[in-house]
Amino acid sequence: MRRVALVTGGARRVGAALVRSFAQRGYDVVLHHGNSPQEAGELAAVLSREFGVRVHVVQEDLADAAAPARVVHAAMDVFERLDVVVSSASVMEWRDFQSVTPDDWARTEAINLRAPFFLMQAAARVMSEGGVIVQIADHLATETGFPRLIPHQVTKSALTQLVRALADHLAPQIRVNAVAPGLVLAPDD
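RESULT FIELD:
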């Protein structure tokens, strides 16, 4: 039976590269996206054809508190196992400090921090020994503040602390890590 990887935010950018990497290594993949059905479907078809793996596409808005558990349940319903979870979905909106609204803050916190926590919680319930959870943090979490990225920077900083806490809590059965990539090309849109 093939190993199974779940990647949130897997339809575009860094998430899509991660999905492709797992498929190249022979993993079946759960490709989560929030609002990129065309990109997700096209990527799934290409990877299935190129690498002979199964790619299951799941659309969920991670701002919904119940969505992370639904994504994990979808993985288990289709593949009956979950070996790797990578939380790549995030919100990064450039806003002047004075223009950040409570709704901006709440959405960023929900997707960048709350969703990864509940995704890890749901995954830890079903993963076997040797499972791996990776959070995509951000190099901005450790750098000097950027006044136009405060909600993103604060939530990614908190995410790194969450990873530290859960790495200790879930060890040795499940390995939990964070990866903090540097700058990548900005999206076209």
